[in-house]
Amino acid sequence: MKEIELLSLWKSELELVSFDKELMNLEIRKHLKSIDRKIIIRDILEIAVAVLIIPVGIFIAYLLPNLFIKAGAILLIPSAILIIYKILQARKSKKQMNQNESNLVYLENNLTYYQSQKELLNSVIYWYILPPALCALLIITGLELTTWRYLYAMGVTIGMGYFVDRLNKLTVLKKINPLIERLQSEITELKQK
Amino acid sequence: MQSSFQDIFYELIEENKGQILRICHAYSRDSDEKKDLFQEVMIAIWKSLPSFEGRASASTWIYRITLNTCMRSRLKLDRHQTNHIKLSSVHFDTIPEKGDDQKEKQILLARMHTCIQQLKDTEKNIVILFLEEIHYKEIASITGVTENYVAVHMKRIKGKLLTCLK
Q: Residue A167 has what pLDDT?
């Protein structure tokens, strides 16, 4: 096949597109509005639990006299603040990527985004698991349970933490790392002279 | 009279719909994906329109958004979670087949797209822009590489495509 035939073949797309102008404007506005609404609801849901923990922590610390429970409940407050801070920080890095940049800049922005996601998920143990788990362990200790119940509650807390950590590490391994590798290889190739 | 936002958008889409559809086709596995991608590009253009300063030509700007949106569809963490946009105001019509010539063309076009899909995204973008008959300088500006890079790699990429089509 010759180059000229290639060019002509490329332009022989067998489908035509037509639009209903007025309806299209309305539909796009409606679509974007519904996306905005979904984002707001997701944002509220994501931090709602962490926000709710703060008054609960204050209430428990005020109500229960046991020192371990009081310490655990008070420590729940900075733990919740840390989680809210991390979620808000992660959201900031996800700010809309400018799609009218050149392909290379766009790929680099995507790489930065996925690298920050990887870092965030890999450090879940330090900001999402350990602080609330330590609070839970203090509260469990203060509950003065029988040995078996105590061990059971500790086991469940540690097990849940381990499960959440593994889940996040698996996401990094199976989904984020291949994307990062792919982006790096494409960027390297584009940067070759 | 100054054109409204909607008028500018409509004009841009109307003038460039052919190339947008061809690029979406090159990035899709099937017709449904192509239509979804086309509508995703439309939304991306709408969202980017306030930042369109007219410094670059409109078609360069459209090519950038289209290629970035198509690449982005492959870079999502969960590709099954893509937004399936269905705008009832956008109609896709297949041109009816007329004789064996068109049937043959259809088969060749499908083969061409299969070959393009086998290329890496970076190669794919360059060859797509070449097929759109864009100058090397503009290809370099759209992709973010140097003109020299385009010139050096073009021969190899074209060779790959032609070999695949043999």
A: 94
Helix %, strand %, coil % of chain B (to 5): 70, 5, 25
**Most confident segment among A1-5, A33-37, A151-155:** A151-155
Q: Within an 8 Å CB–CB cutoff, is residue A6 touching chain B?
A: yes
Are B95 and A15 within 8 A, CB to CB? yes
- Across residues A14-40, what is the average pLDDT? 85
In contact, B130 and B158? CB cutoff 8 Å: yes
Residue ending a domain, among B58, B93, B128, is B93
* B143 and B117 assigned to the same domain: yes
Whether A16 sits inside 8 A of B93 (CB atoms) is: yes
Final residue belonging to a domain, choices B93, B108, B130: B93
Residues of chain B contacting residue A35, judged by C-beta atoms under 8 Å apart: 83
B135 CB-side CA count, 13 A: 2
Q: Which residue has the tokens 């037509």?
A: A18
Same domain, B76 and B136: no
B122 contacts A103? CB cut-off 8 A: yes
- Domains of chain A by residue range: 26-191
Residue A153: both structure tokens together: 């509650």
Residue A17 at interface with chain B, using a CB cutoff of 8 Å: yes
Interface of A with B in 125-184 (CB under 8 A): 171, 175-176, 179, 182-183
Give the structural domain span for B112.
Answer: 96-166
